[in-house]
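Lab notebook, bench 4. Continuing the backlog of folding jobs that were queued last week. Each job is logged with the same field layout so the records can be merged later without manual cleanup. Today's entry covers PepSY domain-containing protein, a 114-residue chain. Filled in by technician R.K.

JOB TYPE: sequence-to-structure
TARGET: PepSY domain-containing protein
LENGTH: 114
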Amino acid sequence: MLKTTIGVALAAMLLAACGQKNADHEKVEGPAVSAPAAPGNAAVDTAPTTGETGPTPGASSYTADQARAAIEKAGYSELGPLNQNANGLWQGKATKDGRKVNVSIDYKGAITEL
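JOB STATUS: finished
OUTPUT FIELD FOLLOWS
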């Protein structure tokens, strides 16, 4: 009987020690996982490719208004009507730095003077 009582007492002490919560251990400062130092995926090369000769043809998801806004944001003004050609490029006449130019925007958003 004494062995049983001692065994139960030891089990109770172990359970009590394991079950105690300390408020200091519950506090978490900052994120559990730190953010990466450099955002993005290093495996994807987002640098402009040198040697590109002009706009890239392809199906454009830009509307005429979106293409107009992107061209104007790039510093072009007095933008005339935009037309989408067979290659999916939006093209029109605009003014930049006092020069009248033909301008084009491809599906990637690259603006090119033609």
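OBSERVATION: The two ends are 99 Å apart (CA to CA).
SIGNED: R.K.
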